[in-house]
Amino acid sequence: MTTTYYNPDQAQEREVWMALSPTDKLRVAKNYHDSIRVKASKQHAYLHVFVEDQIAHGVRPVIRAMERLQSKGMQRHEAIHAVAAVCAAHWQRVALTSTETDQSAAQLRLNAELDALLG
User: Fold this and answer.
1) Cα separation of 39 and 103, whole Å?
2) Mean pLDDT, to the nearest integer, of 74-97?
3) Helix, strand or coil, per DSSP, at residue 2
4) Are 30 and 47 in contact (CB under 8 A)?
5) Interhelix angle for 42-56 vs 22-35, to 10°?
6) CA-to-CA distance for 32 and 80, rounded, in angstroms?
7) What is residue 90's three-state secondary structure?
8) Average pLDDT rounded to a whole number, residues 51-72
9) What span, in angstroms and rounded, lies between the C-alpha atoms of 17 and 74?
10) pTM confidence score
């Protein structure tokens, strides 16, 4: 493992973040929240890891949303929560209501939802 500390208000170094195992990413996300005395559920930490992974992989809709939210004054940690909330709501909607099997159409809808964040 190459890092033991995570701060969601600071951009992660791509190479360092990607070198972490999924277990280590989850651990550092939970440790951060524990350090500020917020009991983060495992699901909450997973959402942080998901957004950080999307950024590290260069997923443009996520990066654009993060940049836009932060340019409007939102702290990076808050922006992660906003992006994660849109993604989680989208996945829940797809899981509960969609009979569609076209993943590219679902991804296009998610991209549009991310682009609409404070757009």
Assistant:
1) 34
2) 92
3) coil
4) no
5) 120
6) 14
7) helix
8) 96
9) 23
10) 0.88
- What tokens appear for 54 in the block? 């999307």
Smallest Cα–Cα separation from 110: which of 38, 62, 71? 62
- The length of the chain in residues reads 119
- With a CB cutoff of 8 Å and minimum separation 6, the contacts of 64 are 114, 115
- Dihedral angle sign, alpha carbons of residues 103, 108, 109, 113: positive
- CA angle centred on 37, ends 32 and 43, rounded to 5°: 60
Instruction: Please state, for a pLDDT cut of 90, what percent of the chain lies above it.
Output: 64
Query: Is 83:62 a contact under the CB 8 Å cutoff?
Result: yes
User: Could you tell me if 7 and 29 are in contact, meaning their C-beta atoms sit under 8 angstroms apart?
Assistant: no
